[in-house]
Amino acid sequence: MTRLFNDPHDFADEMIDGFVAANRSRVRRVPGGVVRSTRSEPGTVAVVIGGGSGHYPAFGGLVGQGLAHGAAMGNLFASPSAQQVHSVATAAHGGGGVLLSYGNYAGDVLHFTQAEERLRAEGVDCRTVVVTDDVSSAPLAEKHKRRGIAGDLTVFKSAAAAAEAGYPLDEVVRVAQSANERTRSFGVAFSGCTLPGASEPLFTVPEGRMAIGMGIHGEPGIGESGVPTADELAQLFVSTLLGELPEGVPGPRGQRVAVLLNGLGGVKYEELFVVYRRVAQLLEAEGLEVVEPEVGELVTSFDMAGASLTLFWLDDELERLWNAPVDTPAYRKGSVLPAEQLAEAELVEDAAVAVPPSTPESREVAVLARTAIDAIARVVDENVEELGRIDAVAGDGDHGIGMQRGSRAASAAAAEALAAGAGAQTLIERAADAWADRAGGTSGALWGVALRAVASHLGDQSRPEAAAVASGVQAAKNGIMTFGKAEVGDKTMVDALVPFSDALSREVMAGAPLAVAWSSAADAATSAAAATADLLPRMGRARPHAEKSLGTPDAGAYSFGLITEAIAAVLAAGGTGTPGAGSAASSTAEQGETK
After folding, report:
1. Rounded Cα gap, residues 87 and 517, in angstroms
2. C-alpha angle 186-187-189 in degrees, rounded to nearest 5
3. What is the three-class DSSP state of 312?
4. Alpha carbon of 304 to those of 209, 215, 275, 399, 556: distances in Å?
5. CB of 83 within 8 A of CB of 437?
6. Through-space distance between the first and last CA atoms of the chain, rounded to whole angstroms
């Protein structure tokens, strides 16, 4: 378990502060993460990586000469927000374009895609290569759905070495894609990991058992077995990975591979060396030539006891790039030429944005909106452990933590905007940005989209009618379905959002006051959330373990139901709110879970 922390909510920020203080010769802090503290050759491609914190040395530890130019660092086990990615990429950009690369997780895809679109709109040539090396997370026919785990390093390293060698952006992208296609990984775990301040691990493995195919966020494996000997684990690793050769590799004999035996945080180096001893013997027996192997902690998961093996199938170009020198805080190879340190004055700072003018009528609505957002944060706080428990059934268990971070940040941003005289639209937009920025992950991105859509229909100049609120919710529904690609029946938040939006529009069109219409729609949302217990997930991290979630409602739909009930209580009370909001949603979800 994690023992050394202050306020758990500040852990990631304080960790980054300490990391930068210990590595000033290689990295500097910028809003959203870190970039190199050394000057790169003007006009070269900037390779920007990223993901949630809690995986050190990924991702900040891989920033430096010969490797990444910057890393967007999200909160614990949560993707960085689009704003964080954009900020880091802007600071790292040296005139040759930007390559974004990260592991294939829904939240990362959503946020990095938003950042890429924004960078392109600003005239920066930006591309993306997503890492998909985990063979256990999807079959070969659906390789594009696979997770990125320790194989991140081979893709990042190859692309960055190409950039360092002066390759143009098109060629850097080609190298990254080739490295990804030639990388395969497979992992196991013996115990779960515990985030700072948590009383229980995100997941557990039965005593004396090993989870097979475990992801780096605690996603359930594809099966279990007894704990093997070191040699038996080596045999499992090698046989699994040799069972799927990349396209263009005719067979193992005579091929060259880079080998990464990765510890996930709770397995000692000495244990890894015992396992690697047998891995090397098995690969040699298959006629493989091992090139520059790596044994140690490369992509971790806090204190998870586990390990993974990665095979990176080399060609002449990839071997040269893999062997190229590197100097980062956590990963070094060969000898790089010393580079000039950047001056502190060259740091990129975020500019303060003025609050647009608003009318007294809109500011009155802003007061109500701030009360509603406070109610959201309160009901999430009350249910954070239950949200995590539901999410852990077939996911990674961090939905409650992410929702708590996001809603608290939104509440603080709303209070600040209200004090600055913001109208309803501006207040909700700033709450939306704070939610997405602080929560990260899929839920952070989706709630940011939803709140911004609602805000756009309220404006800062008048008191909106109930029809405008219903139209805003409908826009939120459309935005989430377009952005997140989910449909009704996929077992996501959409399963509660669609009936909520439809019921709200129907009631408002029939002439019901907003408070009455919202209450009726909230009932529809909580009933639909409970009904997700009967569905199998078709999207997200729960998809590979769909059967495990049968009988349990979707965490995103469940939290959506809680939130709509909390807002209903605020509207019914005329903007003052009531304690205990969300109890109806809790009761309905519990009924759904016992089906």
Report:
1. 41
2. 165
3. strand
4. 14, 11, 17, 19, 25
5. yes
6. 34
Return phi, psi of residue 416, to 5°.
-65, -40
The pair of structure tokens assigned to 69 is 């130019």
DSSP-derived secondary structure for 367-397: HHHHHHHHHHHHHHHHHHHHHHHHHHTTS-S
Considering Cα of 105, then 488, then 543, then 443, what sign does the dihedral take?
positive
Decide which of 62 and 207 is more confident.
Answer: 62
Residue pointed to by tokens 């099966």: 223
Strands 256-263 and 223-226 come out as unpaired
| Nearest-5° Cα angle at 322, 318 to 323 | 120
46 within 8 A of 163, measured Cβ to Cβ: yes
Long-range contacts of 543-550 (CB under 8 A, 24+ apart): 543/145, 544/136, 544/137, 544/138, 544/219, 544/220, 544/222, 545/219, 545/220, 545/222, 545/394, 546/394, 548/220, 548/393, 548/394, 549/393, 549/394, 549/491
Q: 185: which strand partners?
A: 134, 310
- Please count the other Cβ atoms lying within 10 Å of the Cβ belonging to residue 4: 6
Cβ atoms of 457 and 487 closer than 8 Å: no
Query: For residues 63 and 69, what is the distance between their CA atoms, to the nearest angstrom?
Result: 6
d(CA 300, CA 310): 14
- The string of pLDDT tens digits covering residues 501-538 is 999 999 999 999 999 999 999 999 999 999 999 998 87
Q: What is the pairing mode between strands 126-131 and 98-103?
A: parallel
DSSP state of 299: S
DSSP H/E element including 595: none
Instruction: List, by residue number, the catalytic residues.
Output: 217
Query: Three-state DSSP class for 5?
Result: coil
Q: Which residue has the tokens 């880079």?
A: 258
19 forms beta bridges with none
Instruction: With beta carbons less than 8 A apart as the criterion, state whether 89 and 98 touch.
Output: yes
DSSP helix/strand/coil, 14:
helix
pTM (2 decimals)? 0.82
Tokens of 107: 């939240």
Fold category of 360-593 in CATH: 1.25.40
Q: 208: which 2 tokens?
A: 């004396």
Q: How far apart are CA 143 and CA 181, in angstroms?
A: 9
Instruction: Using DSSP, state whether 234 is helix, strand or coil.
Output: helix
Neighbours of 170 (CB within 10 A): 11
Quote the CA–CA distance of 301 and 214 in Å, as a whole number: 11
- Cα-based angle 443, 449, 452 (whole degrees, multiple of 5): 135
User: Which one, of 592, 485, 582, lies nearest residue 532 by Cα?
Assistant: 592
CATH H-level, domain 1-131+156-168: superfamily: Dihydroxyacetone kinase; domain 1 (3.40.50.10440)
Q: Six-digit token pair at 304?
A: 């998870």
Determine the 3-state secondary structure of 326 from DSSP. strand
Angle value at C-alpha 186, between 314 and 85, nearest 5 degrees: 80
Q: What is the dihedral of CA 588, 592, 593, 594, to 10 degrees?
A: 100
**Cα 427 from Cα 431, distance rounded (Å):** 6
Q: Three-class SS of residue 257?
A: strand
Token output for 68: 């990444």
> Is residue 443 scored above 50 in pLDDT?
yes
Query: What's the rounded Cα separation, in Å, for the pair 477 and 26?
Result: 44
Residue-wise pLDDT for 272-316, tens only, equals 999 999 999 999 999 999 999 999 999 999 999 999 999 999 999
- Are 91 and 124 contacting, i.e. CB atoms less than 8 angstroms apart? no
Spans of all domains in the chain: 1-131+156-168, 360-593
